[in-house]
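Repro:
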Amino acid sequence: MTDAPEVGELTPPDRTLMGPGPSDVHPRVLRAMSTPLVGHLDPSFVDIMQEVQELLRYTFRTDNEWTIPVSGTGSASMEAAIGNMVEPGETMLVPTNGYFGDRMASMARRAGGEVVTVDAPWGKPLDTAAVQDAFDEHQPDVFGFVHAETSTGVKQPNVPELTDIAHSHDAYVIADTVTSLGGVELEVDDWGIDVAYSGPQKCLSCPPGASPLTLNDRAMDKVLSREAEPRSWYLDISLLEGYWGDERAYHHTAPVTNVYALREALRLVAEEGIEERWDRHLHVAGALKAAAEAMGLGLNPDDEFWLPSLNAVLVPDGVDAGAAIDYLLEQYDLEIAGGLGALSGDIFRIGCMGHSARPQNVAFLATALGEALEAQGADVDVEAGLGAMRDALNR
């Protein structure tokens, strides 16, 4: 037998989280997580489950009965969506314009599906005509797209046009809303989205562990009439229906504390108002964008595709992105991130999400980032950036 390890008290650093997620957690959400634990079938918890579902419907802008938090991170709700909607032998159309389109493809293949792609460069959205051509050529059963691509800072426009194309071919639409739910305009019902999944740790400013998912009646009919069971028992929506539906029958031990946290985070959304919350993200992120541009830094996407919740700021020539990121962490306990995949080393990914989307955070970030870039000899005008930021915040 080995001796018991000597482990001290938990003292993580107190960071300001302005990366691609997680975002800063609201103090009310942290307090909710410290409240007493009850059983996952306790009558009081059943009432909480109902409240969470109602709040999720409000935030997703949907009347879908089947709207739940999946026990797990955003990747769990993603796999629940794809693993249940894609049956063996079916074809799923996925985008190539970002890291998370690639993840959709991987999950579809693991579900036994055939994958075809609609192509667009990293940093660009899907083109409506290209989606139409892909449907005409491949006739996919399921179409997945990323509403807010965390790897590129691109927001997908014209979503209703894309869903209309899919539905005209009798296909189902799955939307990745991980970086948009609660921070960027999203209309699940009005835009004709059949299935949407998200994560709690981005614009909802909630710790990961219970991840939003919604399916309309058409999608649930497909799930419940599958010929082959989904390959994941844990994420089988037909089984989860027994727990989150009217029966409230045991399926698994839900992460009770994470559900508490999600409930409080969603209460904050409802108190602020979903449209007002979208406006706040747009206003505060607009000040961040103005600061970056006035400093002499560009953004990766065109303005019409700019994603307020995730700003992809171009790394100046001669600057080591990793060194600048380390500087912010070491000198200021401030977290941002670098690019993924095709954009590795080319962009800073700067989140402006949820509780992190506040004027003081943007001012802190603009000042510290300017200093980090100047330390490497970059030609940036920090004073101009701060002035543009103040002007934008005061509009």
